[in-house]
Amino acid sequence: MNMYSLKKSILLIVTLYLGCTSSLSREYLSLPLPKLYGVQKTSVTMTMDGLANEEAWENAEWTDLFMDIQGPDITKPYYDTKVKMLWDKDYFYIYAEMEEEHVWGDIEERDAVIFYNNDFEVFIKPNELQPYYAEFEVNALGTLWDLFLARPYRRNGPVLDEWDINGTKIGIDIKGSLNNPQDLDQGWSVEMAIPIEPVNSIDRGHSFGVGSMWRVNFSRVQWEFQLNNGKYEKKTDADGRRLPENNWVWSPQMAIDMHRPEHWGYVYFLDNKIQTEEGVEIDPAYATAYQLLFHLYRQQLSIDQDDNGKKQIASKLERTIYEANNYSYTAKYLPTDLGFELRVQHDSGLRLSINQDGYIRSSNEK
Fold this sequence. Notes:
Largest sheet: 13 strands, mixed
CATH topology of the largest domain: Immunoglobulin-like
Strand content: 25-35%
Number of domains: 2
Number of helices: 6
Shape: globular
Helix content: 10-25%
CATH class of the largest domain: Mainly Beta
CATH architecture of the largest domain: Sandwich
Distance between the termini: 50 Å
Oligomer: single chain
């Protein structure tokens, strides 16, 4: 090949390359990352009385104060809520303190819908690559609703109310009085011991111990109230319609929906305080890829996808570079017989994929 032909070939290659890259669009996203917490291991015998008097609780860190479920830009909750966590070989311990001027509740039946009262809720997903998770709700009377979800409601996940962890221990302490509108209370606290083995067993046999990570979030449902013949009830407007509840959470959900596990916090089970201070971290490129994957996933679920629509989605994704939290990613959409698969990839080689039911594969998976 002579020099003229070589230069012409190089020019053609460069032209084709520039033509391909110029056809790509860039979408810039700021994706909030979940909260982090390192759980210290305790060797102390714990009593679930709602008081958290054990020395181990004194050494445990408080979470940040809860915020509105939609995120920090929404009005700050008018009562403070905060949580501590501990663990041992048998239990995951949770202690929550909630400011409250009127502590009330009337649901006493196990596995009733507890959030019809003011309540405290715990959500646990033992494997972030799988869609299933557990939920626990408790009111000021200590009434428990524990349930298992095979996948979130957005994918019509079946709810198993009959899934009970009978070894769960609950202690309630009320700083004031219960169901007495004649005085002002300071608040109430919940102390819980959730057995680890049955929760971890929904992760299909994965081991649990020092270094394990669960996705966890906490929610507080708070209703405005009115008195009816001296009894508390949920407040209604002038037309008799019940006012919506307040939803306050530890790790923001960015929507009025607790059933978006991708936003739940990263909770690491550590051995001691030194590990707690130094061992809690998540690769921001991975965490951002995870959030981007679900950002695109939620978009797909909201679209009515016929064959033509699927082709348009695939074309858009493959022509877009996603600049999320200062990291660059490419994405791909693959129609399947059962639905679809979405893929996200970072320059480092990190890859995440998700199918229509929320099952995830990761290049980091061991």
